[in-house]
Amino acid sequence: MTFPIHSYREALSTMADGTIKQINPFSGTQVWTVPGRGNRPLSKPKHDAQPLGPEDFTHSCAFCSGNPLQTPPEKSRMVRGSDGDWHILRGLLPDEMEQADAAFRRVPNLFEIVSYDYWVENYQYEMASDTAFQMQRYISDERGRQHVIDIVRTRLNASGNGQGDEMTDEELLAKAPTYFAGGHDVIVSSRHYIDGATDDSQLASSGTMTPDEHYGFTAFTIDAMRDLYENNRYAPYVVVFQNWLSAAGASFDHLHKQLVAIDERGVQTDMEIQKLRTNPNMYNEWAVNYASYHNLVIAENDYAILIAGIGHRYPTLGLYSKSAVPEPWLQAPEEVRGMSDLLHAAHAATGPDIACNEEWHHKPVDLDMPMPWRINLKWRVSTLAGFEGGTKVYVNTISPFDLRDRVVSSMYKLRDEGKIESSIRIATECSAATNVLRYNPMLHLTQ
């Protein structure tokens, strides 16, 4: 399969009437921003907000901290230790969960995109011995056994045919491996609402965390990614994403990320790899350098850089790791913290009322070329319609320049208020250096 190579020099052009035409140099997506179409509120605050009671903070949905047995059996949790550091506890039994408050939990997705049976039937996948030990330990516990039975029955009954009610406990337990060795996990934050919330419009989002809390969230997600790779030799790629609010595809208005192990790299990744072989430095030249030349760099720190994306269907913030190490789980803690701080700042500047998708991209484990860890934060503020369907030209109501201005203005205010990491450099404070992404080994030879 071949794909057209789009010149980054043609990525942006402005017409006489102010229409900005964009071509994404990585995907070839064509986008227009038409003057006047973006002059409207982006968020849709809840108008029928209801007052909160004490139980709403812990029992509003299945992901809430008071409902740990409404999700499949927990694989691990991130807790704050007495030393103030983050620690991961793995394989707790139900009674043990009550002894350590979780800031974040990793649980299997009840409705998998790629199921455990998919791996077993297509690849003869076998559960790792330590996972099998934990499963047996869990179902040997009285509460754990009942929890698994209830979860399997709930999943089967969700199909609408009542199959779960017709099966014996032993038949239900036979399906337990799905919820211990599956490859679709959810990273759940403990808060449903912000601390001190008075009504149900005050949801806890990525941007309402502290920078340190967000680092825990990010590091815990990376640990889950590493674990999925290590436990499934047949998965060359683990997809990581976050859907915030229903307009962005979220099933719950409770903050969570998802990870899915897949047996392909995906069409977009394959397209980028072909272009990467033609130009190994393309993430510098076509993304970060180009953004710098057009004043589209929003913020940076020593370890990452945030730019206004070009040629996306929705307004998109592009975050790139400067690390020479492509794999997030192999990066130094300070490198992960740098990415997390800028991602947190991007979410905080976006605001909790804007639906958005957070999409992680990294080097597939079987790829022979480096590519940087990068994250796109897409604001779901418009709906694709007939024009886009008929032309494949997408109308993005906010230009990269307008996006930059909105986010930069918000970040200055947030930094002054101490709500984002103080070391973040914003707009003109950023370096004008080129080729700051060090994933390309050829750059090291010239330094």
Automatic annotation (TrEMBL):
SUPFAM superfamilies: HIT-like (SSF54197). One of its GO terms (molecular function) is nucleotidyltransferase activity. Residues 15-439 form the DUF4921 domain. It holds the Pfam family DUF4921. Gene3D superfamilies: HIT-like. InterPro entries: ADP-glucose_phosphorylase, DUF4921, HIT-like_sf. Keywords: Nucleotidyltransferase, Transferase. This is Galactose-1-phosphate uridylyltransferase. It comes from Corynebacterium pilosum.
